[in-house]
Design goal:
Layout lengths: L2 H9 L8 E2 L5 E6 L2 E2 L8 E8 L2 E12 L2 H4 L11 E8 L14 E3 L6 H11 L18 H29 L4 H13 L1 H13 L3 H7 L3 H11 L10 H17 L20 H14 L3 H7 L3 H7 L11 E3 L2 E2 L9 H22 L5 H9 L8 H9 L7 H15 L8 H7 L2
Parallel strand pairs: 5-6, 6-7
Antiparallel strand pairs: 1-2, 2-4, 3-4, 4-5, 8-9
Helix pairs in contact: 4-13, 4-16, 5-6, 5-13, 8-9, 8-10, 13-14
């Protein structure tokens, strides 16, 4: 058993709170369970209020599995525990005394917790090896309204996690949000396989250098392809020769360092996701909308974002997927699914971070209408939850929340921090 289980029982008052008695037989009344201390050192609950044998006490409260844990954790030498008014334990195995040798009143929880709660707890945390998630047998039982509220909170939590990463990029970019948007959009166009390579490309030259090329699509492609190390050393294609010549000029003018070899990968990528295609589309987007970051922030609907993301490749890539290898003609625009990917993983987090930073965030106005209008993602995690509870993911909000739930709670056995786990234990 974990102390966290006892913390949740106490915090949410999920035990028989009537006719409580201390281990010394004194009548005990709980006026206020206290404020849960989840991050700082010191007692588990601050500012608790209890009445013991008609005497009112106010102070802190400590929870242990056994009373003897007080000494095992050396609380007797820590002044932070001098103001503990009640010791709450699962099993009272010895008396505990303050420095002045007065005994700290003790409440043993075992008699006041239902058998069904203990069994529900054990079912979550025992025999885990053959489970996809601990609560998989009962996940479908969770109240729909409570689950939806929890998923919305999880989605906000996921945005907050990404927010810190974005703020780190902002710091490196000297508070230039246009630069932050450029770098993160570049990473997004690279997808998982080439995201880091594209991000390195976007940082390989001062952002002002890229900005000077926004008005000239060929210059921008030359710069980006060159900084990615993707330009062939030799080529008979006029387009490639033009990029080579332009990049050599830019490299000399701005003292740029191009990589010795390309870092991008083509392995196991569909042709439309080849880095050559995505990089050309990225350049076209910024050539069409040099101030795209501010436009993205202003968009309030999915339709507005779709219209803004109408990007395609330059003409050369309509008959090529890689340098020097001609293919059948195809206009390669951003697909709806790729636009969704950009909006879900990059644009909405950017909007959240920017508006939070400016103190202008209104989730219901700025974020919810967009993310809830996008189709649910289809991936291993979402499919796993759909098997347990069909139609649990109705939009991208839920699919993103389920990813957060699986990675940050289920996989880490944080059931007692999860509203699903708490609901099942304390039902």
């Amino acid at each position: 058993m974990q102390e966290a289980f006892l913390h949740s029982l106490w915090k949410y008052k999920k035990l028989n709170m009537t006719q409580l008695k201390t281990t010394r037989g004194e009548e005990l009344q709980i006026l206020h369970t206290g404020l849960h201390n989840e991050t700082e050192s010191g007692p588990d609950f601050f500012k608790a209020e209890v009445v013991i044998d008609k005497q009112h006490w106010a102070g802190n409260l400590e929870i242990h599995l056994k009373s003897s844990d007080w000494y095992a954790h050396h609380h007797e030498t820590d002044p932070a525990y001098d103001n503990v008014i009640l010791h709450v334990v699962w099993e009272d195995d010895m008396s505990i005394f303050r420095k002045d040798e007065t005994e700290i009143p003790c409440l043993e929880l075992k008699p006041y917790v239902s058998k069904s709660q203990v069994e529900a707890y054990k079912e979550l945390f025992e025999n885990k090896s053959d489970k996809w998630i601990n609560c998989e047998s009962h996940f479908h039982e969770v109240d729909e309204f409570k689950l939806n509220n929890w998923l919305e909170r999880l989605y906000i939590e996921r945005l907050e996690d990404k927010n810190q990463l974005i703020l780190n990029v902002l710091k490196v970019s000297r508070n230039n949000w246009d630069e932050v948007g450029f770098k993160l959009m570049a990473k997004a166009f690279g997808l998982n396989v080439n995201g880091e390579a594209f991000l390195q490309m976007s940082s390989a030259a001062d952002f002002k250098v890229f900005q000077k090329c926004f008005q000239h699509p060929v210059h921008l492609e030359a710069l980006c392809f060159g900084l990615c190390g993707m330009l062939p050393a030799e080529s008979e294609d006029a387009y490639v020769q033009k990029l080579q010549k332009e990049f050599e000029f830019l490299k000399q003018k701005f003292q740029l360092n191009a990589p010795a070899a390309s870092q991008v990968k083509y392995f196991r990528l569909r042709p439309d996701n080849f880095p050559s295609i995505r990089l050309s589309q990225f350049c076209h987007l910024y050539a069409e909308h040099p101030q795209i970051f501010s436009k993205l922030i202003q968009c309030k609907t999915k339709k507005e974002l779709y219209n803004l993301l109408e990007a395609r490749t330059s003409a050369y890539w309509e008959t090529h997927y890689s340098f020097g290898k001609q293919s059948r003609f195809k206009i390669k625009k951003l697909s709806k699914s790729f636009k969704d990917l950009l909006i879900i993983n990059t644009i909405v987090p950017l909007k959240f971070a920017y508006q939070s930073y400016k103190g202008q965030l209104d989730f219901e106005e700025h974020i919810y209408p967009i993310i809830s209008s996008l189709n649910s993602e289809s991936n291993r995690i979402v499919k796993g939850f759909e098997k347990l509870k069909p139609k649990v993911s109705k939009s991208a909000l839920e699919s993103q929340a389920l990813i957060q739930l699986k990675n940050n709670y289920c996989d880490l056995n944080r059931c007692l921090k999860c509203q699903v786990g708490l609901e099942l234990i304390h039902a």
